[in-house]
Structures are given as C-alpha cells and as structure tokens.
Amino acid sequence: MPETFTQYFLRQGKDEFDLLLFDIDGTLSSGGRPLPGARELLEHLSELAFPHLLLTNDSCNSHREKAALLHECGLPVGEEHIFSCGDVLKLWAARTNYQGELLFQCGKLGDPSYAELAGLRTTEDPAELPRCAGIIFGEGDYDWQRQLEAVFNSYLRRPELPMIVVNPDSYWPCSDSDAMGIGSGAQARFICTLLAEAGITVTPCYIGKPYPLIYQGVEAELESRLGRPVLPHRIAMIGDSLYSDIQGANANGLRSCLVLTGITTPRLAAEAPPERKPDLIFSAV
Ligand SMILES: [Mg+2]
Description:
β6 (102-106), α5 and β7 form a beta-alpha-beta unit. Strands 5-4-1-13-14-15 form a six-stranded parallel sheet. The chain has a five-stranded parallel sheet with strand order 7-6-8-9-12. A two-stranded antiparallel ribbon has the order 2-3. It is of the alpha/beta class. Among the domains are: 88-206, 3-Layer(aba) Sandwich (Rossmann fold), CATH 3.40.50; 231-285, HAD superfamily/HAD-like (Rossmann fold). It contains ten helices and 15 strands. The longest helix has 15 residues, at 212-226. The site of magnesium ion has 8 residues, from loops.
C-alpha cells in the first residue's frame, strides 16, 4: 500500500513544495464526510501557515457558502482557502474585454455571484436573450428545459455568441447520496451536439479543471498573495481524478499527486496514458 500524502509531506514534501492545491470531492471529503487524515492535515497546514488552497470546479457556491458546507462535513476550511473556477471569470472578463457586458445565465453562480464579482452583468430571463453578448453556464438546480431551449434557439439565430462554461465537469457526486448529478459541462455539450446536427459549430470556452485558465488564475492569485512569482514545479496538485486533477496539473507543469480515495483505482492509475500519469501516488491524503 502506498504511503499517505501527509507522510510524504512531513518527510520531504514541505521542502519540495511552496504551495499545495487540493481537490475536494474524493480527496478531502466523500459523501458529506471527511476522508481519513484530511481534517488533521488541514489543521496541521494551518498551524504551520503553509500556503494551501482548495481548488474546486464548484461554481455554484461562493467562498462563504463552500466554507460553510465544508465545516458542516467536518473540515476546518476558511473562505480564504477556497479557490473556485468561478474566481477565474475575472481573468476571463479582463482578457476578453467583456466587463460590463450582459450575459444570459443558465444555473447558479454563487451568492455573491462570481459573475458579478468579475464585473459581468447577467440575466436568467429568456426575453432578454436578444440583448445578451454571450451565454454563461452556471450549475445547480434550475429549470433546464426552459433555459436550454432558449439557448438552443438563440444559437440558431446567432451562432457567433460566445459560450462560457465555468465548470466543465460532465457529472458530480451528490453529497447526500451515492447518486451522480449531471454537470454543466454535459449540459453545454448537449446543446453543442444539437447545434452540430443543425450544421452550427459552437466551441465552448471552459474555465475549470483541467483547462489552463483555472491554473493561470490560481497562479496569479498566489503571486498576488505571496508577493513573489510562483514556480509551477514547486506547486503540488493533490486530487483523485486522472482527468481533471492529474492531466490538468501535468499540462501546466505542476507536480501531480494522485490519491486513491476517490474515482481512480490502482489499476486505472497503472494504465493511465502518459498525459494522465501522476508524478506521485498516495493511498489517501
Ligand atoms: Mg475529485
């Protein structure tokens, strides 16, 4: 059985890494409960004041809401330790000059809204779609049929509209059952598939893991907090998904650390293609 990340960190990781990025589901918690060693490791990192962030593709809970959910499941996480793909909307809006533009929003983007914090204006009213400069996918509970049909019809008339998908995940584990929820990435790709049948190509702009924007966003955030450049190979990304955690870390030059407490079995890890091979494998955090 491989050792835990905590054992590695205490032995040599604290000298090898300047920063730790943790995935949440399947890495620190599962089914609304902390995974073994997660609480102790987070407490220890706080005592050491060792820089760490929870890097999440959850775009429908603000930092305050996410920290409260994590507290409920027994993980002592402050708002300042959350970094969501929603936070990267600010970087996207600045680079694309979309600040102040009105976007049509499917689903939720937290309270306060990550879109508002990025200087974007949003509406969920299909009647306003003709005035919108793009479509943005949030997530969570909403009236899919009404919103997605409005989006589909809008693209039939205006195929040039940008589509921003904050969380690219296809599905996610529900915290109160062992069922899976259908994610916003899957909803966006469903619309793109329908449009392709109608002869229209729409290429979504994805923001969350494993896409590069979230890594560029978190590195910019860390540099501004630490007041110095961060070296990607001194950052450890610890997660349970070969796709969203390991491939994203590898592609962006981070040290990729797989934990076997989530969706990846030892066999899947052993058979991973080169771009998804973790640098290090641990039994748990
Ligand atoms: Mg995970």
